[in-house]
Design brief:
By secondary structure, the chain is α/β, with parallel strands linked by helices. The protein has two domains: about 280 residues, Zn peptidases (Aminopeptidase, 3-Layer(aba) Sandwich); about 190 residues, Glucose Oxidase, domain 1 (3-Layer(bba) Sandwich). About 30% of the residues lie in helices and about 25% in strands. The strands form four sheets. The chain has a 15-stranded mixed beta sheet that branches. Strands 1-20-18 form a three-stranded mixed beta sheet, with helices on one face. Helix 3 packs across helix 17, helix 5 packs across helix 6 and helix 10 crosses helix 17. The longest helix has 19 residues. It is globular and about 80 Å long.
């Protein structure tokens, strides 16, 4: 037990939550300096960008984050009111529903019904059986005590176990914890965090493997295990276990999940266990120099349980038809999630940055494009998602049953948490991690508020030139964060999993993230304006190509 604890103590300090931070291996050429004067944008885009105002954005945020909307929790009147607010503003802007609609402009036509599952009293067990010759010993871990079993209804997964160290595959620093291991159809046991060594302490690697948020620190590891055919992942957590399981990771009374998607149901379950659970799996615990290895005679059985109730939520969708008869059958989809956390233990979570800021931006982008004297060549779809905070429910439902064909989707643009700028220290650390040789030149005269790090689909390199042009045209410095997106922390993730080109617009985290301090008063409306203008320019340039 002491050896396992010693190894877990070597893990790096957590980085900011969620999977929206820089990806490893970005070349310095992806940094774009701010021009002394914004580069001209084509008309009418130049005038449209200038016409966006911070006051209108602030008004939307103030309403959406007001106490009257109850934090916009899923399956609450507050979220329904916010969805109605979005639909009414689309209608007022003259933006119709997505065809076929009802032809009468009724608000109901803007809503896409999204089935959700409420799972009450989620729980489960992890049973570890060790066989040595004719002797078998069994240890059962209980969810909420020394394990955290993901919410599900009556799901059982069982298989032989294998230990894959930290579960990392990286080229820089070079490491492959799966070398020589056969994990197909097996339960993979992994240690949380990063291996010892300063080379593993970059911001990018900490964000990928040692984030504060559990979903984010395990997402890349689970995705790697999935790609190799693993049945389940058992993640051994460290000395913070007790604080986590009795604090922010305490099993809730109920959760929401989307309808079963067969393609994702085959994903490996992620079960997190305590250091004591790790000892039960690994015996006395590996020394820091131990290599990944098979675990002969060890079988793990995971049982998840809960009571299910079906409910219906809704996405809100508007449509602006393109001007080119040959290209209007293609569309740029722009989205932002409307939902937030509602009330937790009686405390209101307003969700001003997360994500009233994104919804406000999308509403003003839609209104601005509808007012244009000329429309872009391609169509534009405006999507206001439900259930992002729970499990990307609305956007996942969209890509599984797309009202607009994914094959005709030029790109998906996502607006989430665009209300807080980077600090100079954060930019300096990013430049240092990236090894940019002329850091002083990049920073010279730069207001940190004018720096943005959009995420772009690594498999769609054509997006880079569009973002550079949009950034220069709106007076911003950029770092292009190229990423696969399949483990991302917002609604671009389902699109990435379908290989739809995507752009992620995101500001920076702030201390009130996912807390009651995320209020309209704490928001920087001028920062929302910068991001909204960048997203508007990107939307137009992609749609008008």
């Amino acid at each position: 037990m002491r050896a396992l604890l010693a190894l877990l103590l070597l893990l790096g300090a957590p980085a900011p939550a969620r999977g929206q931070a820089p990806s490893p291996g970005k070349p310095p050429s992806d940094f774009v300096r701010r021009e002394a004067e914004p580069a001209p944008l084509p008309e009418p885009l130049e005038g449209l960008v200038a016409g966006m105002k911070a006051g209108a954005l602030a008004t939307h945020v103030a309403f959406l984050a007001s106490p009257a909307l109850l934090g916009r929790g899923l399956d609450t009147p507050g979220l329904s009111a916010a969805a109605g607010y979005a639909a009414s503003h689309l209608s007022l802007a003259g933006i119709p529903p997505l065809p076929p609609g009802d032809g009468k402009g009724a608000l109901a036509a803007y809503f896409q019904a999204v089935p959700v599952r409420e799972i009450r009293e989620p729980g489960g067990t992890v049973t570890i059986e060790r066989r040595e010759g004719a002797t078998a010993t069994t240890r059962t871990l209980v969810s909420g005590v020394d394990a955290l079993v993901p919410p599900a209804t009556e799901r059982i997964v069982s298989g032989p176990a294998v230990f894959a160290g930290y579960g990392i595959r990286e080229t820089s620093p070079a490491r492959d914890d799966y070398r020589g291991l056969d994990v197909k159809g097996r339960v993979v046991v992994l240690l949380e965090g990063l291996p010892p060594g300063e080379e593993w302490r970059t911001k990018a690697l900490r964000s990928r493997y040692a984030a504060e948020d559990a979903e984010d620190r395990w997402a890349a590891k689970v995705e790697t295990a999935r790609s190799l055919g693993a049945l389940a992942v058992v993640g051994v957590e460290g000395v913070e276990w007790a604080a986590r399981v009795t604090g922010k990771d305490r099993p809730p009374a109920f959760v929401f999940r989307g309808v079963v998607d067969e393609s994702r149901e085959a994903e490996p379950l992620l079960v997190r266990v305590s250091p004591a659970g790790g000892q039960a799996l690994l015996g006395a615990g590996p020394a820091p120099s131990d290599q990944p290895r098979s675990l002969p005679g060890v079988t793990v059985t995971v049982r998840a349980q809960g009571r299910e109730r079906l409910a219906v939520s809704q996405n809100v969708v508007g449509f602006l038809e393109g001007s080119d008869p040959e290209r209007k059958g293609e569309a740029v989809v722009v989205g932002a999630h409307v939902d937030h956390l509602g009330r937790e233990e009686g405390v209101l979570h307003p969700g001003a940055d997360d994500n009233a800021s994104g919804v406000a931006s999308l509403l003003e982008i839609a209104r601005t494009l509808a007012s244009s004297p000329r429309r872009p060549k391609r169509s534009v779809v405006f999507a206001f998602w439900t259930g992002e905070e729970e499990d990307k429910i609305g956007s996942t439902f969209w890509v599984s049953r797309p009202p607009w064909p994914l094959s005709k989707t030029t790109a998906y643009l996502n607006l989430d948490m665009v209300g807080h700028p980077w600090t100079r220290k954060e930019i300096e650390d990013l430049l240092a991690d990236a090894g940019l040789p002329d850091r002083d030149a990049f920073l010279a005269g730069l207001d940190p508020a004018d720096f943005v790090e959009p995420g772009l689909a690594r498999y769609a390199p054509e997006l880079g030139d569009v973002l550079v042009r949009a950034g220069r045209g709106t007076g911003l410095a950029l770092h292009l964060d190229w990423t696969e997106g399949v483990t991302g922390g917002s609604d671009y993730r389902p699109f990435a999993r379908k290989r739809v080109p995507f752009v992620r617009f995101f500001g920076s985290f702030f201390p009130g993230y996912h807390g009651p301090e995320d209020t309209a008063e704490a928001l920087d409306a001028s920062q929302v304006l910068r991001m909204a203008r960048l997203a508007l320019a990107t939307t137009w340039l992609l749609a008008d190509r």
